[in-house]
C-alpha cells in the first residue's frame, strides 16, 4: 500500500484566482452588473453570469451586450458605469472563510504565492489597499485587464502561464494547474 505522502509531490508554488476563491466579491459584482444592466431594461440572469464569469471584463461585456440584446451601450460604457458602483462596494469585500489561514500557512512554509485575476485593475488596487497585510504575502499579481503578456483571457490558460513565469524559480508549464484547468485549450 502506498502512503499518501508518497503519492503527492510537494507544493513548490501556488497561484490563486482572486474573485470568488480568495475574495468574497462575486455577490458585489452580480449586484453591480445587475444594477447597470437594469438601466438598459434588461436582466442579468444566472445564465448570462455563467457565460461571462472569469473572462476578461471587456470580453464579458461584449458577450452580455449580444446575449441580452442591450441597446445603446458599448462594452466601454458599461464598464465605466459598473466600475463606478464597484469602486464604492468592493471596499466591503472580505476574504472567503479559510483563505487568510491558508495564505498565512503557505507563507509560513515559504511557498511562493501569486494571484492571476481577470478583475479590473482598479478593483485589484482597492482590494490591495483594503487588505494590505494579506496581499503583501503574494510575490506578484497578474491582472489580465492590463497585462500585455496575457494574450487570451480565461478560460484559456495564458494568465496562469504568465503568472508562473514571473516567479524567480518558475515552475515548468506542466506543473501549472488550476481547478477545471485544461492545458489542451
UniProtKB/TrEMBL annotation:
InterPro entries: HAD-like_sf (IPR036412), HAD_2 (IPR041492), HAD_sf (IPR023214), PGP-like_dom2 (IPR023198). One of its GO terms (molecular function) is phosphatase activity. Pfam families: HAD_2. It comes from the Eukaryota. This is Uncharacterized protein. The lineage of its organism: Eukaryota, Metazoa, Ecdysozoa, Arthropoda, Hexapoda.
Amino acid at each position: 500500500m502506498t502512503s499518501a505522502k508518497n503519492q503527492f509531490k510537494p507544493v513548490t508554488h501556488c497561484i490563486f484566482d482572486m474573485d470568488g476563491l480568495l475574495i468574497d466579491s462575486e455577490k458585489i459584482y452580480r449586484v453591480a452588473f445587475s444594477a447597470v444592466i437594469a438601466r438598459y431594461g434588461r436582466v442579468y440572469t444566472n445564465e448570462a453570469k455563467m457565460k461571462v464569469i472569469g473572462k476578461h471584463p471587456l470580453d464579458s461585456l461584449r458577450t452580455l451586450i449580444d446575449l441580452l440584446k442591450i441597446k445603446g451601450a458599448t462594452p466601454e460604457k458599461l464598464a465605466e458605469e459598473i466600475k463606478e458602483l464597484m469602486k464604492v462596494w468592493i471596499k466591503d469585500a472580505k476574504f472567503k472563510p479559510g483563505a487568510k489561514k491558508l495564505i498565512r500557512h503557505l507563507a509560513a512554509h515559504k511557498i511562493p504565492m501569486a494571484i492571476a485575476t481577470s478583475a479590473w485593475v482598479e478593483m485589484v488596487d482597492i482590494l490591495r489597499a483594503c487588505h494590505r497585510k494579506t496581499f503583501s504575502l503574494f510575490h506578484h499579481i497578474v491582472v489580465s485587464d492590463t497585462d500585455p503578456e496575457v494574450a487570451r483571457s480565461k478560460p484559456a490558460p495564458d494568465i496562469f502561464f504568465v503568472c508562473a513565469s514571473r516567479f524567480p524559480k518558475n515552475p515548468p508549464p506542466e506543473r501549472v494547474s488550476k481547478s477545471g484547468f485544461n492545458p489542451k485549450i
